[in-house]
Amino acid sequence: MAASGIDINRGSSTEDALSPEGVEQVQETGQKLAAKGGLDKVVASPSVRTAQTAQEVAAADPKTPPVSTDQGLESWAMGNLEGQPEALVKDQIRDLIRKNPQAVIPGQGKLTTRPGESFRDYQNRAIPAIRGVMQQLAFEPNSKIGVPIHSSVIKLIKGWIKKGSPDDNSIDPSAMDKESEAPGTVAHLFPNADGEWEVNDVNLDDKKPLPPGIFLIRHGNTPWNADKGSQAQDALGQIAKYSKTIHPGNLGRIKAVAQKAVDAGHLGHDEISDAIDANLPSADDAADLPNDRLLAIAAAASPNKKREYAPLIQRNFGDPSKLPPELGRHLRDIGFGQDAELPT
Predict the structure, then answer these.
(1) Is the pTM of this model over 0.90?
(2) What residues contact residue 297 under an 8 Å CB cut-off, 6+ apart?
(3) In terms of CATH, what superfamily is 20-222?
(4) Could you tell me the pLDDT band of residue 337, with boundaries at 50, 70 and 90?
(5) Full DSSP string of 187-208
């Protein structure tokens, strides 16, 4: 949650580290787990915030359980949807999960080492990774395995279990809509008496020893949103809003908001460009728009997004050399038309 109250879509953001508050949270989690008998081993996502969580949890235990990582446990890489206000991308994310799970999200988030991936690829990476931890438990059924992990992966696991833990890694998508677990909280993953897997919250404050099983540990707070500041998030929210319903009037508003944010040092040009592109329509969706709206969209787009629109511009406006001089000049000014440095 940003200081301005805007929730930001994190995605993978593998480079996002724990804040000082987050370190204290997971240190406390580690101490409480140790007081309940501790863990035998820790298997973490290698993202910075989960690796830090694993280190702090292990360090709090006098036995210091061994720590390993599994890249399959990393969160969903959401490309250019990372860093966007959640309110503006949540419907797009729901559609990707339910209607177009094979679509690869373009771009790469500012705090991640990985480009965007499809939801299907995410499923077929993360669920087998947790199944690998389940297999470790099968070999050592009395062991207690800690898994510092992301809220998105916890939701994915819950959705898979709700579906009956099928071999095809499919999930009940409603699980992805649930609220995220609080930072530093722990859930117990273990087969019940009927051999069916369950996930239940762990009360870290009672005196009961930890039972055997897998313990999903949500990483602590990070400075991701706070570091950007409320002014940056307000600007991103406005830019995304105007980009989503862009017309000639909104184009001027985007420029004004963006320039103010750049001048104040709150946002960089790349962040602004990514926010605009993420909320512009695809070329297919723009095909039936009036030409004035199409030109506003094309003017706001980044060079990469302009390439997507280039065939549509060519279809609607034809040979640039035969256009009225004013229109031809405008197309050149926004990156299209004769002499424009834009491959089609």
Answers:
(1) no
(2) 246, 280, 281, 286, 289, 309
(3) Phosphoglycerate mutase-like (3.40.50.1240)
(4) low
(5) EEEEE-TTS-EEEEE--TTS-P
